[in-house]
């Protein structure tokens, strides 16, 4: 087990900066997920921690010891890859025991540790099989086993479930969560899948273009995003953003007009000072639209499409020519495409953002 400090870490490839100065502290035993769109630098950051990629600038400390320029083998870190990276000519037993053989552990110890690891990951029946005779999920379990058996201080996972189908992903996600619970090691996990991130993470690190946008517990990011990027990245279907004008301000309050929905007045509580005439963005998650009765304001618009998923329904509602709102409605009411529907918005469940995308609180 170990804690990790990233201090002003930068990475460039041929003078192109891809990581712009990351400061982050990961506590002993924490499960941290790096999440963000493709190309934002998640894998590069993970590979720098692993020692597979040189750190251009900044420092990496493990338990307070500077590891910035230590080789991968000296860091006490094990990594599990999306591609499994198993040795194709070795059995499962061979794949598991190989790291211990390399470090010249006694035979009896190797045997015992292979069996213990196989037990943890339900691989006992598969020890004599070759990787090609395993399913994707089983291969990934062997890859995880090969990481565990070395008893590393820190586990790194680089999109480990991306090659699995939806059902297996869910199953393995639960297994990885349980593994973290039983081992208690520090784990860092990279994914572009916000659902995976939300369910596994103690803390999520949301990255965009090589910088950290926000760090926090999954629900804290969901309820209290710092900017439109984080609000938009977390939550599925995505949060709706509507253009709004500040029409009046008093101490601690603003009155908004949302022209496109013909809403004249939505009063929101804010600490920040805004100016009359200022343009802002109102963010409302699909699940936060309510029935018009008793809501702070309401609007009517045209239903263009409805998805009925059994446990919930998503309504697509057109407004102002080409814009569409996604509204979640738990209780199914019979609507036909083209119907006019009416929904309410409550200030308390809405988020406000400046033109720059920063949250207004
Ligand atoms: P992610 O894992 O978030 O998809 P990556 O860490 O793979 O993103 O990539 C971050 C950025 O660094 C991308 O713009 C990518 O093109 C660039 N990059 C990654 N590896 C290399 C490399 N070996 N040489 C040059 N550019 C690279």
Automatic annotation (TrEMBL):
SUPFAM superfamilies: MOP-like, P-loop containing nucleoside triphosphate hydrolases. Coiled coil: none annotated. Residues 4-234 form the ABC transporter domain. It comes from the Bacteria. GO terms for molecular function: ATP binding. SMART domains: AAA. InterPro entries: AAA+_ATPase (IPR003593), ABC_transporter-like_ATP-bd (IPR003439), ABC_transporter-like_CS (IPR017871), ABC_transpr_MalK-like (IPR015855), ABC_transpr_MalK/UgpC-like (IPR047641), Mo/tungstate-bd_C_term_dom (IPR008995), NA-bd_OB-fold (IPR012340), OB_MalK-like (IPR040582). The keyword ATP-binding applies. CDD domains: ABC_MalK_N. The keyword Chaperone does not apply. Keywords: ATP-binding, Cell inner membrane, Cell membrane, Membrane, Nucleotide-binding, Sugar transport, Transport. This is Sugar ABC transporter ATP-binding protein.
């Amino acid at each position: 087990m170990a804690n990790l400090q990233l201090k002003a870490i930068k990475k460039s490839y041929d003078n192109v900066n891809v990581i712009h100065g990351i400061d982050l502290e990961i506590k002993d035993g924490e499960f941290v997920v790096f999440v963000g769109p493709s190309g934002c630098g998640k894998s590069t950051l993970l590979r720098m921690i692993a020692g597979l990629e040189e750190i251009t600038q900044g420092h990496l400390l493990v338990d307070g010891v500077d590891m910035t320029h230590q080789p991968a083998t000296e860091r006490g870190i094990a990594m599990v890859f999306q591609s499994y990276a198993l040795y194709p000519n070795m059995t499962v037993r061979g794949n598991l025991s190989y790291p211990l053989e390399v470090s010249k552990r006694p035979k009896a110890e190797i045997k015992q540790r292979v069996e213990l690891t196989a037990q943890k990951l339900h691989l006992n029946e598969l020890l004599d099989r070759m990787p090609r005779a395993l399913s994707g999920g089983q291969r990934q379990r062997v890859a995880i086993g090969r990481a565990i058996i070395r008893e590393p201080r820190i586990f790194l996972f680089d999109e480990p479930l991306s090659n699995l189908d939806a059902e297996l992903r869910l199953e393995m996600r639960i297994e990885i969560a349980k593994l973290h619970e039983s081992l208690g090691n520090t784990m860092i996990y990279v994914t572009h899948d916000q659902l995976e991130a939300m369910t596994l993470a103690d803390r999520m690190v949301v990255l965009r273009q090589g910088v950290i946008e926000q760090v926090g517990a999954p629900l804290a990011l969901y309820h209290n995003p710092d900017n439109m990027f984080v609000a938009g990245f977390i939550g599925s279907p995505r949060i709706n953003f509507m253009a709004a004008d500040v029409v009046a301000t008093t101490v601690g309050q603003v009155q908004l007009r949302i022209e496109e929905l013909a809403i004249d007045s939505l009063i929101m509580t804010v600490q920040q000072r805004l100016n009359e005439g200022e343009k802002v963005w109102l963010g409302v998650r699909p699940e936060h639209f309510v029935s018009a009765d008793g809501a702070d304001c309401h609007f009517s618009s045209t239903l263009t499409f409805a998805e009925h998923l059994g446990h919930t329904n998503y309504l697509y509602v057109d407004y102002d020519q080409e814009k569409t709102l996604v509204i979640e409605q738990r209780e199914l009411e019979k609507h036909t495409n083209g119907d006019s529907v009416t929904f309410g918005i409550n200030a308390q469940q809405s988020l406000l953002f400046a033109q720059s995308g920063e949250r207004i609180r």
